[in-house]
Design brief:
By secondary structure, this protein is an alpha/beta fold. Among the domains are: about 30 residues; about 280 residues, Alpha-Beta Barrel (TIM Barrel), CATH 3.20.20; about 110 residues, Sandwich (Immunoglobulin-like), CATH 2.60.40. It is about 30% helix and about 20% strand. The chain contains 21 helices and 28 strands. Helix 19 links the parallel strand 15 and strand 16. About 50% of the residues are buried. Bound molecules: beta-D-glucopyranose.
Length: about 750
């Protein structure tokens, strides 16, 4: 008999393979349903909920914080690492160390059910590599570039072990005294909605469980941007009509775009604090808009219901907030301490607790945390990725900057300018270029304007420096040096502005003029009779009436982030061509506040003005100059009238009549001439930015869909579309058409 060893070996290995498959399959089918990646998320959550104790469920509704923050309430990281049972639902993670985060996560995964912790952090305009503040980003009108920047921020955040950012902020603000105006995309509804959607897409990518995607959180729902007097945390009074036609719209659109979580704001809205607003949180956000994930309170927000005069104690606060629809309690432990007694007293039903926990677990499942709970460690971006990220932040910074004035002084004419004096408190400053909410951005990575100018222009010109004065105070001893520097220069670049901490949370100012010392500095330097370029760095619009006459050119640079100073240097030298346009009005003085372009028409159009100053702002919404010159043709419409179900095409040709290539944004406004609920003077309904080469023409097109672009909501959020005359406008060109039955 002849043995065929080949067959034997083959059968042997086939047998082993079969056994392995059997073991793996049985192992999978022996897994509890919630751990089985092959089963759909809904069934996995239901299974997990059925295994959880009440205490475990309550812990899921609680968020604490841990990491490098020195706040005394911070859970110390040693403590959490030594804790054998960290079943907390979520942590705000003040670190960028994926290893430490994974060590904490290991503790959670080794608990009875192994429910991963959701790590969150405020990534507002970048994590390490900071791009400009959101208020600046809106002025770029470059939505795709912003989406890429958010994607880059998501990747850096993810690699630090964080899966959830508290961004974007969609609180439209029309009071620049409020410090958090820096965190929104300006005063306009449409702009906030479009950039908010871009942020959500950038953070969440093509799927939450993809590597480098993080969950977005829309905040601070809703109306927080209308804090009375611009003071933070205060009362907000907003009619239902305005709520629906202004403040709610960006949130609704961002949820439609897939935003997964939402934060309830600190504000008391019309007498009902947002944390306790059942109608808006539950009936609107969860039921009508179908938010897929959960609602989190803002920091200590549940407890603050006591301060706001709505409840007596934490137990009542927990009941109110929970019943209103807040699923996750940020940092104040009010749920952790009070939900159990409330359940025992039948004030909260277990089914209600289950639905809050369901939403929280759903986000964790969608992020893939159950199947992939750990963050990759020791991944360092290669130099080409780093370069790519830097280019994105620099390009976004450049496109966000707005040239407000230019008496033929910029770009710098190197044939005639050989000596430049860089003057002012922002010249040598790196920290304040980052603005507020700097994530893990480091001052050391940021180049100052003076250094950037030196690096870029030293071989063509001489650059001297004099600080002149500090940001505020009364010390004028540096004035003399500033004057001397100006005297020996052909051109002065004066860098003024606000410290990073003057805007952002809890950072209101009663007037938005620059501090007196800075105004004095520019006036003093002007005595040298040299051309002055004023470069501004600020987190809110400024009232520049007192100093505008002293500057021959003004560049609004905002808080432009890590690479911002290079963007400034390139614009000043003409290497780049400014293309930003304001997403917020610059009033003449603080007394004009509130002032925004989309006000409703008044009873007597030419009267009712201030007696002491003009009623016009210094720089209106949409304003911004370029080194190119653009000539707008008239608007051509595809028809003079349309029906509700038809589309109307508006076209405009824009010609670059200069010899410099440039970028131009066409902002398309619509005016609804007569409406049962009066409409604003005009409303931005579409915008587009394109490059137009020198001596070339580009056609911009707005495809008007009446239901989307000509309708407005009533005080209950129902869309109204009324026939009548509409005006369409782009850069002052106007055309009218009728909507007919
Ligand atoms: C702010 C939020 C922020 C939260 C967490 C609060 O004080 O209002 O915007 O997301 O803290 O840091």
């Amino acid at each position: 008999m002849i043995f065929n060893w080949g067959y034997k070996v083959k059968y042997f290995f086939t047998g082993i393979l079969f056994m392995c498959c059997y073991i793996i399959t049985t192992a999978q089918s022996n897994l509890p349903i919630y751990k089985n990646i092959k089963i759909n998320i809904e069934d996995r959550i239901k299974d997990l909920l059925s295994r959880m104790t009440i205490q475990e469920k309550i812990l899921q509704t609680s968020q604490s914080y841990v990491g490098n923050n020195d706040n005394p309430n911070n859970i110390n990281k040693e403590e959490i690492l030594s804790n054998t049972n960290p079943q907390i639902g979520s942590l705000i993670y003040y670190s960028d160390d994926a290893k430490m985060r994974n060590a904490i996560q290991t503790k959670a995964m080794n608990t009875r059910l192994g429910i991963p912790i959701l790590f969150g952090f405020d990534v507002i305009h970048g994590f390490k590599n900071l791009y400009p503040i959101p208020l600046a980003v809106g002025c770029s009108w470059n939505v795709n570039l912003y989406e890429q920047a958010c994607m880059m921020a998501a990747k850096e955040t993810y690699l630090a072990g964080i899966n959830w950012t508290f961004s974007p902020m969609l609180d439209i603000s029309r009071d620049p005294r409020w410090g958090r105006v820096s965190e929104c995309y300006g005063e306009d509804v449409y702009t906030n909605a479009v950039f908010g959607v871009a942020a959500v897409k950038g953070y969440q990518g093509n799927g939450l469980s993809n590597p480098y995607s993080i969950a977005a959180c829309l905040k601070h729902f809703v109306g927080y941007g209308l804090s009375e007097g611009g003071r933070d945390y205060t009362y907000t009074e907003i009619s239902n009509q305005t709520l629906w036609d202004t403040y709610l719209i960006p949130y609704q659109q961002a949820i439609n775009a897939g935003a997964i979580t939402l934060m309830a704001g600190f504000n008391n809205l019309n007498g009902i604090p947002m944390i306790a607003n059942h109608f808006l949180l539950t009936d609107i956000v969860k039921k009508r808009w179908q938010l897929p994930g959960f609602i989190v309170s803002d920091w200590n927000g549940v407890h603050q219901l006591i301060e706001q005069g709505n409840v007596l104690n934490n137990k009542e606060a927990a009941l109110k907030a929970f019943k209103s629809g807040v699923d996750l309690d940020m940092t104040d432990d009010v749920y952790k301490d009070n939900l159990l007694p409330l359940l025992n007293e039948d004030k909260i039903r277990i089914t209600e607790l289950d639905s809050a926990v369901y939403r929280i677990l759903k986000v964790k499942f969608m992020l893939g945390l159950f199947d992939n709970p750990y963050a990759p460690e020791n991944i360092i971006d290669d130099s080409s990725t780093q370069l790519h990220d830097k280019l994105i932040s620099e390009k976004l910074a450049s496109e966000s900057m707005v040239l407000l004035k230019n008496k033929n002084i910029l770009p710098i004419d190197f044939k005639h300018i050989h000596n430049i004096a860089v003057i002012g408190p922002m010249s040598m400053d790196s920290l304040d270029l980052m603005g507020s909410w700097i994530g893990r951005g480091k001052e050391i990575d940021v180049t100052s304007v003076y250094t950037a100018l030196k690096r870029k222009l030293n071989n063509v010109i001489n650059i001297s420096f004099a600080k002149g004065a500090d940001f505020d105070g009364t010390d004028t001893t540096g004035f003399e040096d500033a004057y001397k520097a100006a005297m020996t220069a052909d051109l002065c670049i004066i860098c003024l502005g606000e410290k990073g901490i003057w805007s952002g949370e809890n950072a209101s100012r009663s007037s938005i003029e620059l501090p007196y010392i800075q105004e004095q500095l520019i006036k003093m330097v002007s005595k040298a009779k040299k051309p002055i370029v004023l470069v501004l760095f600020n987190g809110r619009p400024l009232a520049l009436k007192n100093i505008e006459p002293y500057a021959d050119a003004i560049l609004e640079s905002w808080q432009p982030g890590t690479m911002g100073a290079f963007a400034v240097a390139d614009i000043l030298s003409g290497k780049s061509n400014p293309s930003g346009k304001l997403d917020i009005t610059f009033p003449l003085t603080s007394g004009q506040i509130p002032i925004y372009y989309s006000m409703r028409p008044k009873a007597r159009p030419s009267s009712g003005n201030y007696q002491d100053i003009s009623t016009q702002p210094l720089y209106p919404f949409g304003y911004g100059l370029s080194y190119s010159k653009f000539a707008y043709d008239s608007i051509k419409l595809s028809s003079s009238h349309i029906k509700k179900e038809e589309h109307l095409i508006a076209r405009i040709n824009v010609q670059n009549i200069s010899d410099k290539d440039g970028l131009e944004t066409v902002l398309w406004y619509i005016t609804d001439k007569t409406a049962s609920i009066t409409r604003p003077i005009k409303e931005l309904r579409f915008f587009e930015k394109k490059e137009i080469k020198k001596n070339n023409t580009k056609t911009f097109i707005f495809d008007i869909d009446p239901l989307r672009d000509l309708s407005y909501p009533d005080a209950d959020g129902n869309k109204i579309l009324e026939p009548g005359e509409f005006i369409i406008e782009a850069n002052g060109q106007k055309a009218s058409f009728d909507l007919i039955e």
